[in-house]
Design goal:
The chain is α/β, with parallel strands linked by helices. Helix content is 48%, strand content 14%. It is globular, with a radius of gyration of 19 Å.
């Protein structure tokens, strides 16, 4: 009886922690997005991105305190120190966590490529629109490719790094979905090297799950993949092998 009571009590505490986290998340999104929108007449998109980075950091702190979901980053030495280096960040996509965390992890301003439906989300979508990210209609692949190619080149020329989740959607922890070629295609077209990233976020923040599992998310920044003298097929194969090999290792990390 006492053991059952403790188990039920722990579940209740977890449930309450997650509830409080979502309350905080909604309030934090509303506050930071409002700040971004109100600052539009007086600031640049880069300045507004710094507000988004503040939102990222505070959300991660709340997630740690209320749900016990912490994170560590390994492989930081693989991020080039040269401020003039352009990169396309291609990462594993298992949950909403990485979309929150990436602005806090990477030193350069990121330009995410995302589905245009996100623009319809109150506050969050409006803030995305104000930071000049790349939004696409996934139902029209040809037009989406053209938009990523043209806007991607522009954003890279402005010193930003492009962030794309090549699977196109979240995949459950421990599963594999063939990568789409948009990121690799942009890398070849712009002769921009690729920074592959793996993380086991889906283990602790499962897709479409209210409850979070307490634990330590590991983000693994992998060695840069050079586009020099490589075909699109070679890059695609190298990218998948790099990330998925690391995912096999992370899936066994306790």
């Amino acid at each position: 009886m006492n053991s059952d009571f403790k188990v039920k009590n722990l579940k209740t505490i977890r449930w309450m922690g997650c509830l409080l986290f979502y309350v905080f998340l909604f309030a934090n999104v509303t506050l930071c997005a409002s700040a971004i929108l109100l600052s539009i007449p007086f600031t640049s998109a880069s300045s507004r991105y710094s507000i988004g980075r503040f939102w990222s950091k505070t959300t991660l702190i709340a997630l740690s305190k209320l749900c016990g979901v912490r994170f560590q980053v390994i492989g930081l030495e693989n991020i080039p120190k040269d401020p003039n280096v352009s990169l396309i960040v291609l990462g594993k996509h298992q949950s909403a966590w990485e979309t929150i965390a990436y602005p806090s992890i990477f030193p350069r301003q990121l330009c995410f490529v995302f589905k245009r439906e996100l623009l319809l989300l109150p506050f969050f979508g409006w803030a995305l629109a104000a930071t000049n990210m790349i939004h696409i209609n996934r139902g029209d692949r040809e037009k989406a490719r053209a938009i990523v190619a043209s806007q991607g080149k522009k954003q890279l020329s402005e010193g930003k790094w492009i962030a794309i989740f090549p699977e196109g959607t979240r995949t459950a922890f421990g599963t594999f979905k063939p990568y789409r070629r948009g990121g690799v295609r942009l890398a070849v077209a712009t002769q921009t090297n690729i920074l592959p990233v793996a993380q086991n976020s889906g283990r602790f923040w499962p897709r479409n799950s209210f409850l979070k599992e307490p634990g330590l998310i590991t983000v693994s920044v992998l060695p840069v993949i050079s586009v020099d003298s490589k075909s699109e097929d070679e890059l695609q194969s190298t990218l998948e092998l790099s990330i998925e090999s690391e995912m096999c290792r992370l899936e066994n990390v306790t």
